[in-house]
Specification:
The protein is an alpha/beta fold and 519 residues long. It has 14 helices and 15 strands. It has a ten-stranded mixed sheet with strand order 5-6-4-3-7-1-8-14-2-15, with helices on both faces. Helix 9 links the parallel strand 5 and strand 6. The chain starts with a helix and ends with a helix. InterPro entries: Alkaline_phosphatase, Alkaline_phosphatase_core_sf, Collagen.
Length: 519
Amino acid sequence: MLLLASVGVMNCEGPRGNDGASGEKGANGETGANGETGATGGKGGLGDKGAQGDKGDKGDKGDTGVEPPSTDPGPGKLTSGYDDAIKGGVAHADRVIFFLGDGMGIPVMTAARIYGYGEEGSLHIDDLPETGFVRTYSRDSRVTDSAPSMSAYMTGVKMSNGVIAMSAETPNYGQGKPVPTVLEWAEAAGWSTGVVTTTRVTHATPAATYSHISDRDNENNIARQLVPGGLGFNSTLGNGLEVIFGGGRSQFTGRADNRDLVTELKAKSYTYASNATELSAIPLTGASQKALGLFTNSHMSYELDRNPANEPSLSQMATKAVQILEQNQKGYFLMVEGGRIDHALHDTNAKRALVDTIAFDNAIDAVLTEVKKSDPNLTHTLIVVTADHDHTMVHLGYAQRTGKTTPTNAGVLGLVKNYAGTAMGQPTNDADGKPYSILAFGNGPNRIPSSRVTAPTLTDDVTSANGYLQEAAIRMPTGGETHGGTDVAIQAVGFGADQFHGFMDNTEVFGLLRKATKL
């Protein structure tokens, strides 16, 4: 059995069969995974131009004249603490009159006293109970001009010559920041305010109470600062000063920018007066009353030359101002300037300077009389009198006393005369054998070129004439006599007046005014 099995294995392979049919196609495989993100495409081309936008609003209209439009020149709205300061009936002055005799140094006051009343007489200024002395140098000069000196009184900041109520670093004609004035603080407290002057109302002294500028001579710009709501208005003044009296009509009408500021002010409820009669006729209409008086095209006339029918006196202007301002029961601030004292001194015309000083002194008396009608003891009133600087006027020689000046007595305007001995009453001669006047100037136009030997012999009639220009040591051009650098006097009466004594800087006066008023 084993053998048969073996043979079977070796011979049993049959022939190859035919190939089988192909199987069916398999199913599709699964979808492959996504490929990686492609690179960023290139920048597209520029789009089409958009449609034109709407037309913008029309801008404000500027000046049409030579000056570019200016922004508000003032320091902005002031936050007054006055009402809180006087709560509970705190005593204070709520009526302040600040008198400024421009250039009225002590030699000028002395000469005016003798001119009007003699050596033993008194000015009304002399009767004020408190007296002190003021240093007047400016930030950049030991001899100040009116702009920084008055500004120092009004702001407490020492400024450079030519600059009005600006920050200390402001250069003349340069850029700086406005600083608030006493008048502006008064407006912020709800007081009424005013300026009265015999100069143009845009001149340096009055301007230092209400304007801010680095060039005192830019009076067209200064005038704009007075017009409520107008281009260039100093908005710190609120609705504007209540009283503006003086000269300078030409700064308000006939301007290069074609603005008529008188018309604009009248449209803001200002009553306008152009002469003494119209001033007198201004009625008193209430606490909000406003009045503008411009009585000449430029400065008002010297008192010696004033026509009373046309130009009011300083006394008349100041009295009317007080009557208008005191209608505001809350309070008022008034500045009164005898401005032409300074101009006569620049000319070395002593007679006109002294007559204007007497007129200034009379205005003080007139205002005191008016104020005492409602405040007899000056319980609520402070009156301050001072000067912004002095001049180079001097008193010469050991002169015999002269008494007051009259039509027959030259007085202090006359010659130096011997006071004793056989020559008593006769002119005293200089080293050249020539008589000389009591009053003279350190500099000015009337300087004898060489020795006085060949000069005309002076007489009382010559030196006391209206137009005589006193002799000077240093020759200057006509009108070019300079300010002096000595201290000036300050006098006061009324509430807080006792603080005005001793020596002080002009910047300290500002603090004394605010202390007395609580402004």
